[in-house]
């Protein structure tokens, strides 16, 4: 049993969990200062980094750790708070887009400086540029293996404002 517990695979995943827990705690405190949860920040960030600041609801679910119904609840809450809007898809009545509003972009702009400071201090700043590039490559390969839908909708063209009807 001792040899199995000394396996570098156990060490690798243990270190990964420890890093994740430490960063998550630091991020959560900072998000709370801005009235956001970690999930709401993730949704805002994913949408803001997507073409036209929008994603189909199904693609947003695929890119996050949320189920389709979980995304619906988060988007409902964020829509009530004025951070997101929904837009119906003109070509598929079954689909709708979640879109960041001006208020959502403003909230993201308020959160990002502190978020980037935390990332720099506790994560990327611990690595030289070559190590960071290697880590990013490794994380993308692992992400693509364990979560192949993580980039769903981000590389496909999304309709422009003229091609969707607004529901907000």
From TrEMBL:
One of its GO terms (biological process) is response to stress. It comes from the Bacteria. This is MarR family transcriptional regulator. Residues 1-144 form the HTH marR-type domain. InterPro entries: HTH_MarR-typ, MarR/SlyA-like, WH-like_DNA-bd_sf, WH_DNA-bd_sf. It comes from Micromonospora globbae. GO terms for molecular function: DNA-binding transcription factor activity. SMART domains: HTH_MARR.
């Amino acid at each position: 049993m001792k040899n199995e517990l000394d396996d570098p695979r156990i060490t690798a995943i243990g270190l990964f969990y420890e890093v994740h827990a430490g960063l998550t705690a630091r991020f959560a405190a900072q998000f709370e200062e801005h009235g956001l949860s970690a999930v709401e920040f993730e949704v805002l960030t994913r949408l803001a980094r997507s073409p036209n600041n929008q994603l189909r609801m199904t693609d947003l679910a695929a890119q996050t750790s949320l189920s389709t119904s979980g995304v619906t609840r988060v988007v409902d809450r964020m829509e009530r708070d004025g951070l997101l809007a929904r837009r119906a898809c003109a070509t598929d009545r079954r689909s709708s887009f979640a879109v960041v509003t001006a208020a959502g972009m403003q909230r993201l702009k308020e959160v990002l400086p502190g978020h980037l400071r935390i990332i720099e201090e506790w994560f990327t700043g611990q690595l030289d540029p070559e190590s960071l590039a290697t880590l990013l490559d490794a994380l993308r390969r692992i992400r693509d293996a364990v979560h192949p839908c993580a980039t769903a909708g981000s590389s496909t063209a999304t309709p422009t404002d003229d091609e969707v009807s607004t529901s907000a």
